[in-house]
Amino acid sequence: MTSINPTELTARIERWPIAGAFTISRGAKTEAVVVIAEVSRDGQAGCGECVPYARYGETPDTALAAIAAMREPLRRGLDRVALQSAMPPGAARNALDCALLDLEAKLSRRRAWDVLGSAAPHAATTAYTISLGTPEAMAEATARAAARPLLKIKLGGDGDDARIAAVRRAAPQAELIVDANEAWTPDNLARNLAACADAGVTLVEQPLPAGRDDALAQIRRPIAVCADESVHDRASLEGLRGRYDAINIKLDKTGGVTEAIAMAEAARALGLDIMVGCMVATSLSMAPAMLLTPHARFVDLDGPLLLAKDRDGGLRYDGSIVYPPEPELWG
User: What is the pLDDT of residues 75-111, one digit of tens each?
Assistant: First the structure.
């Protein structure tokens, strides 16, 4: 859609307290720090939210600066398609990509999935995350969430066999997926996979460090293994052959929903299952990720459920069922 008016950009950092703490193998945090991009033109505004991740060398300040650097290109006509080559994949591009898609949807009076020519999102069962802790603490947290149908268990290396056994006892009916966040080693890989298989775990996410995951191709995997830190955008898919059975697509890694949709289609063509995942963030981050639900075997979009309070007008959660966004929120 053409316009004689330039696209204007503003950006800011927001902080959202977490309910308690969120703990994984790399540490704990008590707030979600997000960066918001807002683009406006012809009386309409589009918004996108990202979570810069230190694991990938990102900080809120560097993401904010990267977004701000696009102010003049946007005024000169940079659009969402051109953005894909103007910025590298990552959190900053995600915020801008989602903001531009939101603006396109509003200006055209269509939903974002229609703008993309993709399938409409649907209500889905999201995983609910149990933070890393002692077996006793994790069992206690799991017992409080045992009625949820899908639980994602954060693991951390040594002692994970005891943790997952304790979690299974506390939630005998729930489907379990686990996320080691690169904390396992080739020495404990087989033992931990066997413990997960014994506990009826469906999927293990990123057991070994990215770039040091050759052992996954050298053993019989008793359950499916999902790449997270080892996969970012379509360019990283080919290197997963023989090691992984699924991938976790996060918009903050792909650099937005535009690349994420294309990546999901490419991954499925390679026979890989799809998980759509998230960082801990508000519903503004989750809303565009809902467009991946038609592709996904697993949905892990519980970020707002882990916050002390979500933003006003956020996604509707009914227990573990999350619904597509209303246009007032995004898209």
Answer: 999 999 999 999 999 999 999 999 999 999 999 999 9
Annotated active-site residue 250? The verdict is yes
Catalytic residue among 29, 250, 253, 309: 250
Radius of gyration of the chain (CA): 20
Among 148, 127, 122, 150, CA closest to 290: 122
Q: Is 245 exposed, middle or buried (0-12, 13-18, 19+ CB in 10 A)?
A: middle
Mean pLDDT of the chain: 96
Is 154 catalytic? The answer is yes
Q: Is 205 annotated as a binding residue?
A: yes
pLDDT band with cut points at 50, 70 and 90 for residue 1: very low
Q: Where are the alpha helices (DSSP H) in the chain?
A: 60-68, 71-75, 80-86, 91-108, 112-116, 135-144, 160-170, 186-198, 251-254, 257-269, 283-289
| pLDDT value, residue 2 | 56
Taken in order of first residue, the domains within the chain and their CATH numbers are 8-109 (3.30.390.10), 124-322 (3.20.20.120)
Catalytic residue among 29, 154, 253, 309: 154
Residue 206 above 70 pLDDT?
Answer: yes
Q: CB atoms < 10 A from the CB of 309, how many?
A: 11
Regarding beta strands 246-249 and 298-299, do their DSSP bridges make them parallel or antiparallel, or are they unpaired?
unpaired
Residue 318 labeled ligand binder? no
228 assigned ligand-binding residue: yes
